[in-house]
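ingest -> validate -> predict -> emit
validate: passed (alphabet ok, no gaps, 105 aa)
predict: started
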Amino acid sequence: MVVNNEATVEFLAKQRKEMKLDGHNLYVGLSNNLRWIWLDGENVSDGYNLWGPGQPDGDGRCGTLLNYVIGNLKWLGYGWRWNDFSCTRQQYVYGYICEQPLGML
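emit:
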């Protein structure tokens, strides 16, 4: 899923809260192979920079959506933001978010 604006982040944050998934990384369609791009091929734009504080910090090549609700004071007040994360690390990752056009089954 392309999560490149505040409205989408807020929508997903609300959904995650209802599912009690706060504090879990969820993979989104963001990856780094020399530069950060979305799965639709668009570059990550400075206009929609939703990286968490100090991110990306180089510890991964896949993007996750995360809210450090416990134990990380650097993120206090930032809410849901992107975080770079290992593409193969399963610990602390709940799953991934997919996107499907309206009208598809």
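Residues 6-96 form a domain with the Mannose-Binding Protein A; Chain A fold (CATH 3.10.100.10).
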